[in-house]
């Protein structure tokens, strides 16, 4: 999903009896040349998968090994789900990217450093490969890309460049301006009070 100048969406369990969902949500800042465009949503039914030394890689966005996702990307980046089995796994990296690894479940060793759920291992840039080890089945997300050279300002669900842009976005949301569109959903719309810098001072 690309937000562009603004988009609203509803996160719902696809079936009333399908149980709990366990997922990971990645936010990527759009560059100035596309961030004021229209919002967009595309469903990826079958992202490409690659067999690894001891696991499977699912390419969600960008290019990895010999596979390329059809997901839209406005900057040079990659997002790969790693379903790792017991043992060592070596993956190729793009030296111009900086990378990080997020462990969803299990435990993954990056070199001699164990990375557990809830932790992000910053892998840096300049390397052409990285070796992981897992003593049992683990799942992780590899994210990477060319370092973003624009300053960001984020508050609540709004990502912008300046505080004034955030204020404008909040006003549009609070007044139900057409900027964000509408969503047919059984859930109530989330309301949020003004950013702290817009609240009256005593």
Report on this structure.
With 202 residues, the chain is mainly beta. The strands form 4 sheets. It has a 6-stranded antiparallel sheet, with no helix packed on it. A 4-stranded antiparallel sheet has the order 6-11-8-9, with no helix packed on it. A two-stranded antiparallel sheet has the order 3-4. It starts with 48 loop residues before the first strand and ends in a 28-residue tail after the last helix. The chain has one helix at residues 163-174; strands spanning 49-52, 55-61, 63-64, 67-68, 77-84, 87-92, 98-105, 108-110, 113-115, 120-125, 129-134, 138-145, 153-155, 158-160. 6% of the residues lie in helices and 34% in strands. The model has no long low-confidence stretch (mean pLDDT 91). It has a domain at 49-145: Sandwich (Jelly Rolls), CATH 2.60.120.10.
Give descriptors for this structure:
14 strands, Jelly Rolls, 6-stranded antiparallel beta sheet, mainly beta, 6% helix
Topology diagram in text:
Elements: E1 49-52, E2 55-61, E3 63-64, E4 67-68, E5 77-84, E6 87-92, E7 98-105, E8 108-110, E9 113-115, E10 120-125, E11 129-134, E12 138-145, E13 153-155, E14 158-160, H1 163-174
Antiparallel strand pairs: 1-2, 2-5, 3-4, 5-12, 6-11, 7-10, 7-12, 8-9, 8-11, 13-14
CATH superfamily of the domain at 49-145: Jelly Rolls
Strand content: 25-35%
Helix/sheet category: mainly beta
Number of strand segments: 14
Distance between the termini: 41 Å
Residue share in helix: under 10%
């Amino acid at each position: 999903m690309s937000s562009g100048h603004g988009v609203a969406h509803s996160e719902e369990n696809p079936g009333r009896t399908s149980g709990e969902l366990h997922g990971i949500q990645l936010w990527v800042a759009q560059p100035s040349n596309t961030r004021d465009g229209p919002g967009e949503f595309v469903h990826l039914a079958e992202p490409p998968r690659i067999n690894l030394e001891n696991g499977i890689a699912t390419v969600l966005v960008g290019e990895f090994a010999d596979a390329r996702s059809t997901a839209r990307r406005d900057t040079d980046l990659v997002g790969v789900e790693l379903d790792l089995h017991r043992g060592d796994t070596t993956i190729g990296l793009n030296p111009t990217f900086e990378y990080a690894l997020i462990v969803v479940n299990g435990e993954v060793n990056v070199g001699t450093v164990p990375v557990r759920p809830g932790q992000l291992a910053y892998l840096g840039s300049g390397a052409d490969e990285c070796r992981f080890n897992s003593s049992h089945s683990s799942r992780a997300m590899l994210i990477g890309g060319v370092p973003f050279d624009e300053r960001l300002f984020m508050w609540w669900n709004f990502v912008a460049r300046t505080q004034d842009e955030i204020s404008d976005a909040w006003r549009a949301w609070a007044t139900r301006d057409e900027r964000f569109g509408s969503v047919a959903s059984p859930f109530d719309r989330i309301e949020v009070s003004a950013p702290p810098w817009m609240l009256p001072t005593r």
